[in-house]
Structure formats: structure tokens, C-alpha cells
Amino acid sequence: MKKVIKYVIIDILRNKIIIAYTLFLMALSFGIFSLEDNPAKGLLGLLNIILIIVPLVSIIFSTIYVYNSAEFIELLVSQPLQRKTIWISLFTGLSCSMALAFLFGAGIPVLIYQADITGFMMIVTGVLLSVIFVSIALLAAVKTRDKAKGIGIAILLWLYFSVLFDGFVLFLLFQFSDYPLEKMMIGVGMLNPIDLTRIMILLKMDVSALMGYTGAVFKDFFGTQTGMGLSFLVLLGWAILPMWFSIRKFKHKDL
Amino acid sequence: MIIATNISKKFGSLHALNNFSVTCNKGESIALIGPNASGKTTFIKTVLGMVVCDSGFITFNGSNIKNDWQYRSRIGYMPQMGRYPENMTIGQVLDMMKDIRKKQVKQTLDEELINLFELKPLMQKRMRTLSGGTRQKVSAALAFLFAPDVLILDEPTAGLDPVSSEILKEKIIAEKKNGKLVLITSHVLSELDDLVTQVIYMQDGRLCFHKTIEQLRVDTGQDKLAKAIARVMQKQ
Q1: C-alpha distances in Å from residue A121, one per residue of A69, A118, A183
Q2: A181-210 per-position pLDDT tens digit
Q3: Is it the case that residue B89 has pLDDT exceeding 60?
Q4: Which of A35, A198, B153, B198 lies 20 to 30 A from B216 at CA?
């Protein structure tokens, strides 16, 4: 398993996109922090950009990478290796690369400018988001044989998680604004890792007052240790479940 | 050594393999022959576990291959079209395979083909820059590299020049003499004459016959395999 992971990581590093991504994140983070004189405000700005970019790069790069490694996977499958091993190695290699890119690109600037609990949260959730979208990408790639279709699905999934989902939630809120939906919103937030991450970090930043009554309900839930622990578990679930389904599918796939 | 029992595989509505059963023993050299799309490659891929059959099962040395993967360390496979990571060099591909397969079995490496095909000077070349023939040479070298007990060669000489093709045939004959099981598919029947001892003829995913080459010669009254098969096809 280690050997396969090694070859995946070498291969990813060789195509330099991941290095460009790291440098881009770094330039972005340093840029935002140096524009704002208040690092807390800088972190807020960075959060909004990271929540868009990290999932996008993670899901698109991973999907394309899996399709481009079709030959590599085919070669490995005919060798004495378990299919599960091959797929998990691919996942680990991709996750490590995306997570490391985020740690170097965004983690270092955050630690320099805002090395408190909020900054730390941001790094941890950013890494988790990277892994989650690698996992979703693998599921999308294993389900569809056609490359263009697979990448299209990956883009649509990203669009759904970052834009459409919020639209649906807003729609729901307006339609049912006569009902107390605040508690339900916690559950709805769990359905989208990006929203969950956003809520978790915003609440650490003490800007929850801006969110009115919902903010207070959120604070009640996410402010407690149980709430935080539960949210992290949900994020972990988002990373593991798609991956688990994709392993099951890959085991029976014809190559 | 390899026993396939009633295996079936459908791709959409196409029956690639239809209740196909066959037994291959150690020391045999078997030609898989059949028209295009008769299921030869699908059968080979099912043996390797690259395609999972819908029903039926395959055993390798008595154990079902379904949940096994170790058995593949005893197979050398040369695909019809070798597909390799495009931006790796020949040397890197060979090293990677050595690295991946080394721990399973302590074995000596058989680098004869690498030398005979003169691949050494090409080691720094990237896979995407290789011609079809050189790719075939790499595939062949990889299949023989780990001195496996079973060799599965899918159209081994397609795309090879006459000299290399001859080298490969010599090598196959030598391995056959070593008592290995060799499975070959090919459309160039004339070159199979001195390579194989048995013939499996497939059509539409079904087994038409599985005979020794002597038996086939007697049955058809033809000395050459190409003519014998032609006779069989006419009869149908």
C-alpha cells in the first residue's frame, strides 16, 4: 500500500498543478491579510474565498486525475494487489497532496497572522474540506465511465454544494418563514460540508450576533463541546462515506 | 491450473462470455482462437480479475480467484494494447513494477527480454513518446520479468518487427519447455504452429472446441494450423 501511495504522490507532484495551487493559496492569504489591518477581518475575507476555492480545486483536480490514471489503475489491477488497496492508495495520495497544499498555502499565513483558536479551526476544517471533496470526486469518477460526463458531474456537484444548496435553503426559509425553523437549520447545515464549515468558523469569530435569532440557536448548539464534536464527526462522515461507497463500486468495476 | 466453470459476462446486451468452461493445465501451451469479438480478451481479463464475471467461477490452483489477489503474482500478462502512465519513463515503469511485486515472492528477475530487445538504451524515454512496437516490447519484457508460472499473452506479436517477433517466439518456446502454462491469443495462425500444443476455439463467447493440435490435425486432415482452422470455420 505504501508503495502505491508513494507512486501516486510522486506522480501528482510531477505535474506541478498542486504546487501552483499552493503558491496561489499562499499569495491569496498573504494578500488578504496585508490588505486588512485587522487580522480577524482578514480571516473572514479569507474564509469566504477558501470555501469556494478549496472544494473546487479539490474536486476537479481529483476527478481529472482519476480519469488520467486509468492506465495506471489498469496496470496495477493486473498485478498482485488488492483492488481496495489500489483505490485507498489513490485516495490517500490525493488527500495528502491536497491537504499539504492547503497546510502550506493557507495554513502558514493563518498561523502567522492569527494563531488563535479561530485560525486553528480554519486550518483543520480546510484540510477536512480538501479530503471531503477528494472523496466525493472519487465517487463521481468511479460511477461514470465517460471522462467528460464524470468531470461535468464533478463541476455540478461543486456548484450544488457551494451555490445551489444555499439557494434551496433560502427558498425554504422564505417559504416557511412563519414557522420556527431555527432548530431545523442545524440539521440542514449538516447536509452540506461547506455550510457546516462556514457556520463553525463564523461562530468562533463572534459574528453570530449578525445572524439574529438563528445565530443564537446556532451558538447554543455549536458553542457547546458536544455540538462541536458532533459537527466534526459529521465532517468526517462526509469524508469517509463517499469513499466507502466508491470502494464498493470499484471492487466490481470492469476495467 | 486454471479452471473456468460456466462463466458468463454481459456487456449491455452483448454476451461476451456465455457459459464458458475450460481447463488449462501446467505445461500446456494453449492458443485461444476465434473471430473478433468472440470473447478471447474478456476471458483473459476475467482470469486476471480485471473483469468480474456475472456468473460462474474461476479457480487458480484449486482456489477461487474471486476474493484472492495473491495468485496474480504467479501470472505474467502482456495486454493487447499496453497502456502505461504516459509521463513515466520505461525505467520508472520497470522499477515500479519490481518495487510492487518484489515483496510477495522472493524471485529472480528474468531480464533476458530487456536485453534482447535492447531496451536498456531507451530507459530514459517517456512512455508517451514510444512507438507501438516499443510499447509491445515493454509489455513483453514486463510479462516475463518475474519468471511467472503462467504467461498470458494477448496478441503478443502484433506490431512487432520480424526480428523482435522471432525473439519473442523463441522466448515463448523456451518458457514452454520449462513447463509453464502459456495462453496465447493471436490472429496470425501461421506463427502459432510451433508455439502451441492445444487449441481453444471460441465463437460468440462460447467454447466451440478444445483439442490438442495433433487431434485437430487428424480431425481435419490438415497439417498447418491455419488451414485446419479454415477447414473448421468452413464446416460451420
Answers
A1: 34, 5, 23
A2: 778 888 888 899 999 998 888 888 777 666
A3: yes
A4: B153
CB-CB neighbors (< 8 A) of B100 in chain A: 3-4, 76, 79, 81
Spatial neighbors of A139 by CB under 8 A, at least 6 apart, are A242, A243, A245, A246, A249
Q: Which residues pair with B76 in a beta bridge?
A: B151
Instruction: Enter the pTM of the model.
Output: 0.89
Which residue in the set B87, B88, B101 is minimally distant from A80, CB to CB? B101
A207-211, B59-63, B176-180: segment of lowest average pLDDT: A207-211
Q: pLDDT digit string (tens) for B151-173?
A: 999 998 888 999 999 999 999 99
* 8 A C-beta contact, residue A93 and residue B85: no
Is the model's pLDDT at B103 over the cut of 70? no
Residues A131, A239: Cα–Cα separation, whole Å:
6
B142: its cell numbers: 514486463
Residue B104: pLDDT above 60? no
The whole-angstrom distance between B79's CA and the closest CA on chain A is 9
In angstroms, the CA A152 to CA B56 distance is: 37
Closest chain B CA to residue A79:
B72
* Partners of residue B86 in chain A, C-beta under 8 Å: 71
Cβ separation A75–B84 shorter than 8 A: yes
Amino acid found at A228: M
